[in-house]
Amino acid sequence: MLFPHESTILLIHTDMVNKETLFQVAEVRLSYSTKIKSSERLKVASSHEVYNVFKSVWDDGRMQLIEEFKVLLNRSNRVLGIVNLASGGMASCVIDPKLIFVSAIKSGASAVILAHNHPSGNTIPSD
Length: 127
Prior knowledge:
By secondary structure, this protein is α+β, with helices and mostly antiparallel strands. The chain has helices at 19-22, 47-57, 60-63, 97-107, and strands at 68-75, 78-87, 111-116. The chain has a domain at 43-119: Cytidine Deaminase, domain 2, CATH 3.40.140.10. It is built from 4 helices and 3 strands; from the N terminus they run αααββαβ. Strands 2-1-3 form a 3-stranded antiparallel β-sheet, with helices on one face. The two termini are 41 Å apart.
């Protein structure tokens, strides 16, 4: 028995269901467009190179004030794009995992690199 607390099974006759409204759903479109050829995309081969990519797009004026999450999407170690997924305050930043997944799916990424800053400058991981 899958649901031990359930003891009643509800049967609905198909004539009682309005089939037109039963299957009305929103359309979902996933898209990613670029004018850069795959061979012309930046290729990263080390964590130091990834750091340099992120550092080049981070706003230094905000880096000391607001914690942000950015995601670098890549395929065959070629950069597909950088997306600012979330920004928070001085002490924390909350990110919805769905945003990470939808960004990766939209771009057709085979790998994802997450990076975020510490406005306090403290590099010791929190508990």
